[in-house]
């Protein structure tokens, strides 16, 4: 059975001290749950990783970086390598988020190099894809997402692909308060799973976790997660509050 996952993306929020406090609060609340079958991931800024990883029970909370370098090491001022991230205690790395594509001009080629670097260092990529509003209005959303998958992850060998988590994040829903409808989410998730099946076969497609991201909150998570092909969420704003995040973790 494929994993159900709720991953928080803190973006550039919380001081290191506040981050540890939030992680401890989430850890305490998740610790009280009877069912730990949902994988909970905290995607923190780089400098929070080590302390947050030490503040949570690794049996039920994992830690993610929000980016990694496309190179292994060397003269790349300001960059952080996948190896450093792994050794800081992270198990996952979010790659291809629309904010990285937009503000840092990360294209398919760069993202593919980052995915490969992450996998070489035993970090599991949470690979984001999704269309902007103009693309959806023009009926190009399937084509856009397919291209993002082809450029970023569809050249991976089967063994590596099995480590990938996909996050469908329609850009028009991120941070806007307007989530995709459950039907829109299911339609795209089903499409993504079919594309994975065409490339890697049905068995692997059935095991691939596909998360929804974009204004997911406790009040809409249940409806979104109840869809056959929606295996959880990548959560921005609502992951910054322990009660809201818990409301989403328990929404399956
Ligand atoms: C995100 O940035 O990954 C995201 C889904 O943000 P929000 O939940 O705030 O829309």
Order of strands, widest sheet: 1-2-3-4-5-6-7-8
- CATH architecture heading: Alpha-Beta Barrel
The set of bound ligands, ions and cofactors reads: phosphoenolpyruvate
Largest sheet: 8 strands, parallel, barrel
The H-and-E topology, N to C, reads as EHEHEHEHHEHHHEHHEHEH
- The first-level CATH class name: Alpha Beta
- Indicate the overall shape: globular
CATH overall fold name = TIM Barrel
Summarize this entry quickly.
This protein has 252 residues and is α/β, with parallel strands linked by helices.
Any overview of this molecule?
- By secondary structure, the protein is an alpha/beta fold.
- It has one domain: TIM Barrel, CATH 3.20.20.70.
- It has helices spanning 16-31, 49-55, 82-87, 98-103, 108-120, 133-137, 141-152, 158-161, 182-200, 202-207, 218-225, 242-249; strands spanning 4-9, 38-43, 61-65, 92-95, 124-129, 165-168, 210-213, 232-235.
- Helix 11 (218-225) links the parallel strand 7 and strand 8.
- Helix 1 (16-31) crosses helix 12 (242-249) and helix 11 packs parallel to helix 12 (242-249).
- It is globular, with a radius of gyration of 17 Å.
- The mean pLDDT is 98.
- The structure holds phosphoenolpyruvate.
- Residues 9, 169, 174-175, 213-216, 234-238 line the site of phosphoenolpyruvate.
